[in-house]
Amino acid sequence: MFDRRTFLRTAAAVSLSVSAFALAASGAAAADPIVIRFSHVVAPDTPKGKGADKFKELAEKYTNGGVKVEVYPNSQLYKDKEELEALQLGAVQMLAPSLAKFGPLGIKEFEVFDLPYIFSGYDSLHKVTYGPVGKSLLDKLGAKGIQGLAFWDNGFKIMSANSPLKTPDDFLGLKMRIQSSKVLEAEMNALGAVPQVMAFSEVYQALQTGVVDGTENPPSNMYTQKMHEVQKHATLSNHGYLGYAVIVNKKFWDELPADVRGNLEKAMTEATEYANGIAKEENEKALAAMKAAGTTEFHELTADELASWREALLPVHDEMAERIGADLIKQVQQEAGVSQ
Ligand code: LMR
After folding, report:
1. Contact, 221 vs 154, CB < 8 A?
2. Euclidean distance between the first and the last CA atom of the chain, given in angstroms as a whole number
């Protein structure tokens, strides 16, 4: 819930952005741009951070400065759960939360993306995010006052801890930080670990102080949050995917002048191409940088070890069928082209 300070910050932001919008829309002050506050929790130097900055550049260019995009990275304004509440209240206009964070909004279907081994790589993922299932998932957000605009890639997750993680037995009793997804909770339980939901901005300190033992994230997040400095071991397991839905406050979006909305859609399409074009390489560069730093030992799974991970984790698909929808899981499995 919001504390008093957050509430005041939110109320001020709402009144600022509403008045800027009203002035610009009425044409009373052509010099006053429409302001889009775009909040996110990761570093600027990540696939999402760079995508947000690209959207800013293109949106301001295509509207000839009629729209100003203010990007707030690194949980500067709001943490994970707060930012979704702030979007619904209109205190920020745009976010790109990870797909693992929509459950608390009541949209459990997005957790299908968290299922272990559901995608074989980016091509298989794109069949879903650029296909009819992706569109129908974004359409579900409308009922929550949110317009879904696009899916942005990050990458495939690696597991880290201060002890080697080669087989499921190595997870026994480890406290593992997860995002707020029931699928990820089931995943850690299946490995014998103790899942702990925690905001992204708190993970580094929790790892450093031993509040949790380990975590999972794509290399780009692990590196830019310096998690490698406080994790002695990591396994290149690629056991699951982490990516984003770019979302906007629906009322704000619907009330934009049609030409402005059209230009913003064009900016979003191009920013999406850009973000999804760099994600794989950004993760490869982050992994190389962590290997060079030498603070973490990286482990590749052998065929037998991989088989033991799959055996432990694949039952999560059935376990979560009731929550996510057996049909949706089947559809995604078929579109992604991965037989389990
Ligand atoms: C996490 O909380 O681990 C990620 O969702 C952070 C992000 O937005 O990439």
Report:
1. yes
2. 40
CA of 216 to the centre of ligand 1 (A): 10
Cβ neighbours for 169, distance < 8 A, ≥ 6 positions apart: 192
203 alpha-carbon distance from chain centroid:
15
Indicate which residue's Cα is closest to atom 1 of ligand 1: 200
Q: Indicate which residue's Cα is closest to atom 5 of ligand 1.
A: 98
pLDDT per position as a tens digit, 172-207: 999 999 999 999 999 999 999 999 999 999 999 999
By C-alpha distance, which of 319, 301, 331 is closest to 187?
319
The residue whose C-alpha atom lies closest to atom 3 belonging to ligand 1 is: 200
Residue 275: pLDDT over 70: yes
CA of residue 101 to ligand 1 center, whole Å: 9
* Euclidean distance between CA atoms 224 and 239, whole angstroms: 21
* Ligand 1 pocket by Cβ (under 6 Å): 41-42, 48, 98, 154, 179, 200, 217, 221
CA angle 216, 221, 225 (to 5 degrees): 105
pLDDT number for residue 340: 59
User: β-pairing, 158-161 with 94-95?
Assistant: unpaired
Q: Tokens 């932001």 sit at which residue?
A: 13
* 133's tokens: 């299932």
Beta strand 175-178 with 241-249 is: unpaired
SS3 62: helix
The predicted structure's pLDDT at residue 243: 98
User: Which residues sit opposite 196 in a β-bridge?
Assistant: 177
- What is the Å distance from ligand 1's center to 110 Cα? 14
Ligand 1 centroid to residue 81 C-alpha, Å: 11
Mind listing the pLDDT tens digit for each residue in 111-125? 999 999 999 999 999
What's the sign of the alpha-carbon dihedral 104, 105, 108, 114?
negative
Q: Which atom of ligand 1 is nearest to the CA of 217?
A: 3
Q: How far is the CA of 201 from the centre of ligand 1 (A)?
A: 9
**Distance, CA of 158 to CA of 72 (rounded, Å):** 26
